[in-house]
C-alpha cells in the first residue's frame, strides 16, 4: 500500500496507487477511464449500495465489488478512495476513509457546508492522508497557459474577471433522482453543481474575493429547492471587480466563459478553449487559428461531452502527491474557497445585502 509516509519511493520504481470508487453514477466511468490511462494508477475496487450495480460493474471492470463500505475500507488492496456520492455525503464517506488510512478524493464540491468540509479536511490531516477535490479544469491547457501568463505578469495588474455558465437542464434532470435539487444532498443548484467549475477557475486566476452581492431565483423548474439562475457582483481583495452567472435555464444550453482582463492583456476562455488572447507587445503573434477560435465560441455545455484529458492530468498530480508526500494542487483548503464563495452568494441573495467573505468564512 502507498501511504503518505512513503516519500522515499522514487519515480523510477513506478509504484502504483490503487484506487477504489464509492458511487457508481455516470461520472464514475470518466474517473475509471482516467485511472486506466495513468501508468501509475490502478482501479482496485468499487462500492455501490445497489447490489445489482456493484456486481455488474465489478464484472465489467474486473475488480472487487462491495456493497459494504466499511468492508471495502478494510481492504489492504485499496490506497485511496474516490467519493462520487451525492455532494452532501462527501464528508460522510470521506471521513471514515481517512480514518482507515486511505487517501481521499472527492468530486466537486468538497461537501455542501463549511462545517462538514472542515471536518473532512481535519480528518485527513489527523490521519496524515492526502485530500484532493476534482476540479479538473485547472488542468485544461487553456487554463494552464492563462495561469502562467498571470504568474509571469504578462497581463499586468488584473482589473476584471467573470465566470459565466449558461447551460440548460430539463425538468427531467431534476426529476431523475430524489436527491437532485435538494439543499440537503445537492447543496444548491446552478452555482453549486454546474457553475462551480468556472467559479473555481475565477478564484484560481483572479485571487480571493473580499465582498459579494448577489441574486438567485428559481424560474424554469418545478419541485426543486435550489436556484436555476444566479448572478453576483464581486469585489476581489486586489481591488478588481468581477461577476458570476450560473444558469441552467438557458435553453437549449450554451457555453461556459471565463474572462480575465488586465492592464496589459485580456484573455477569454470559452468552453475550455482560448477564444481571445491579447497581450500588449504580442499582437503580431498568432496564438490560435481562426478555426480554433470558432470551435471554442461554438462550444456548448461541456458537461455533456466531457474530455478525459484534464482528469488524467489531475490524477497524475494526485498520484505524484501521494508518492512524493506533498500537497495536491487542489487540496481541501483550495476546494473550500469556491464552496465558501457560493454559500456567501446564497446568503447575500437571501438577505439582499452584500456579504464580506472573510467574516462569512469565519462563521
TrEMBL record:
Residues 147-357 form the Gfo/Idh/MocA-like oxidoreductase C-terminal domain. It comes from the Bacteria. InterPro entries: Gfo/Idh/MocA-like_OxRdtase_C (IPR004104), Gfo/Idh/MocA-like_OxRdtase_N (IPR000683), Gfo/Idh/MocA_Oxidoreductase (IPR052515), NAD(P)-bd_dom_sf (IPR036291). Residues 17-132 form the Gfo/Idh/MocA-like oxidoreductase N-terminal domain. Pfam families: GFO_IDH_MocA (PF01408), GFO_IDH_MocA_C (PF02894). Belongs to the Gfo/Idh/MocA family. This is Gfo/Idh/MocA family oxidoreductase. It comes from Tigheibacillus halophilus.
Amino acid at each position: 500500500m502507498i501511504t503518505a509516509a512513503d516519500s522515499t519511493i522514487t519515480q523510477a520504481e513506478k509504484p502504483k496507487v490503487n484506487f477504489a470508487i464509492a458511487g457508481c453514477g455516470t461520472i464514475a466511468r470518466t474517473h475509471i477511464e482516467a485511472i486506466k490511462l495513468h501508468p501509475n494508477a490502478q482501479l482496485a475496487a468499487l462500492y455501490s449500495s445497489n447490489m445489482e450495480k456493484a456486481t455488474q460493474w465489478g464484472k465489467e471492470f474486473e475488480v472487487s465489488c462491495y456493497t459494504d463500505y466499511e468492508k471495502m475500507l478494510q481492504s489492504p488492496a485499496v490506497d485511496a478512495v474516490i467519493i462520487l456520492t451525492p455532494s452532501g455525503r462527501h464528508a460522510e464517506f470521506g471521513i471514515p476513509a481517512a480514518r482507515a488510512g486511505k487517501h481521499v478524493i472527492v468530486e466537486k464540491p468538497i461537501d455542501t457546508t463549511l462545517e462538514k468540509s472542515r471536518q473532512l479536511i481535519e480528518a485527513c490531516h489527523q490521519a496524515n492522508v492526502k485530500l484532493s477535490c476534482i476540479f479538473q479544469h485547472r488542468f485544461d491547457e487553456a487554463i494552464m497557459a492563462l495561469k502562467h501568463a498571470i504568474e509571469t505578469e504578462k497581463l499586468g495588474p488584473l482589473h476584471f474577471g467573470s465566470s459565466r455558465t449558461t447551460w440548460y437542464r430539463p425538468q427531467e434532470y431534476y426529476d431523475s433522482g430524489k436527491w437532485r435539487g435538494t439543499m440537503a444532498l445537492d447543496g444548491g443548484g446552478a452555482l453549486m453543481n454546474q457553475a462551480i467549475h468556472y467559479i473555481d477557475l475565477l478564484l484560481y486566476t483572479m485571487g480571493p474575493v473580499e465582498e459579494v452581492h448577489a441574486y438567485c431565483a428559481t424560474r424554469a423548474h418545478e419541485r426543486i429547492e435550489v436556484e436555476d439562475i444566479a448572478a453576483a457582483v464581486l469585489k476581489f481583495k486586489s481591488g478588481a471587480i468581477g461577476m458570476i452567472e450560473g444558469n441552467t435555464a438557458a435553453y437549449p444550453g450554451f457555453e461556459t466563459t471565463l474572462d480575465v482582463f488586465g492592464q496589459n492583456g485580456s484573455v477569454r476562455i470559452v468552453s475550455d478553449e482560448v477564444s481571445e488572447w491579447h497581450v500588449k507587445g504580442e499582437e503580431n503573434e498568432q496564438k490560435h487559428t481562426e478555426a480554433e477560435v470558432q470551435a471554442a465560441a461554438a462550444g456548448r455545455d461541456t458537461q455533456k461531452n466531457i474530455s478525459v484529458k484534464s482528469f488524467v492530468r489531475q490524477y497524475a498530480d494526485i498520484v505524484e502527491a501521494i508518492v512524493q508526500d506533498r500537497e495536491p494542487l487542489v487540496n481541501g483548503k483550495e476546494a473550500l474557497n469556491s464552496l465558501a464563495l457560493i454559500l456567501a452568494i446564497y446568503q447575500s441573495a437571501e438577505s439582499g445585502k452584500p456579504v464580506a467573505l472573510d467574516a462569512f468564512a469565519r462563521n
